[in-house]
Amino acid sequence: MDADAGTGGAARSPVRPPRPDGTGRRRFSLFVIGDVRIEVRAALDVRFGELTADRLCYGPARALVAGTAVNLARCAVARFRRVSVLAKVGDDEFTPVIRRELRRIGARDRLRVEPGAPNGVTVMVRDRPAGGGPGVRLLVAEQDAPGRRLTESEVRSAAGSIRRADALFLDGYSLLSPVSRAALRAAAGTARAAGTAVAFDLVPHDIDARLPAAAVLPVLSAADVVFAEAPTLARLLGRAVPAGADEVRALARALDGAVAGRPLWLLRFGPTLLERVLAYQREGLSLEYGTGYRDGDVRAGFGDRLAACELYWWLSSR
């Protein structure tokens, strides 16, 4: 297959043109359910392997409102006419900061506040790049964050907005808690009954080490679009991690027998799992394209910009 050609559907890459950071006519409504946290990001001037004792490092560091829901919404507002965010947050000094950030980016605040609970905090540290690579990322996330306690009733209270949306965006972090897992399933069921498209981001990328395939694959079958790194899906299916485009296409065909339904698979692969995508749907689209990611590009946020771009492209082609 040519690098940017396809069969059985659209003949143009969803990201070239435009690049993921481009903008176009804003349309469609998107309802996002996910995690909202305060995140501290820092970059080191050493490799993690060089640290054999306590060390003080000076380097770029900042705190921001982040989490899967905010990160996606921050990118989606450039393309979608309306973006709403539903998440469970805490009740502390960071709560008004989170609300102000949603207003600043132009997203609708559908937050649910847990009285007396602190907001979740995440620390992301990336070490010095080696050989031109991006470096290694260490992500430390507070385990008992409010997002794990988003309830089914809180989701059902937003059912009208979910039904009116063109697409509902969910992610796999909600599967890690039985409470938020029930909320996720309720949201997907509400969307499917109303004809709202369901998009699912298969994160964390090591979800195969945290949950059995039987807890993940049924959720994928309820989705219309699935964003995933190819190695994550391969491990879930008990297959070897794909080493190239041919193996990724074989993985896509294996998904036909492993997952019910006909989701559109957007499988990321390449040296850093950001360079290439295979868009595949059983008895339909098969399209491989480049994302525009290059060595030296900032990794943080690139995947969210790409997902927002791809979802807009898919909705436009329906």
From TrEMBL:
Keywords: Kinase, Transferase. The keyword Transferase applies. GO terms for molecular function: kinase activity. InterPro entries: PfkB_dom (IPR011611), Ribokinase-like (IPR029056). Residues 66-250 form the Carbohydrate kinase PfkB domain. The keyword Kinase applies. Residues 1-23 are annotated as: Disordered. Gene3D superfamilies: 3.40.1190.20. This is Carbohydrate kinase family protein. It comes from Actinomadura nitritigenes. The lineage of its organism: Bacteria, Bacillati, Actinomycetota, Actinomycetes, Streptosporangiales.
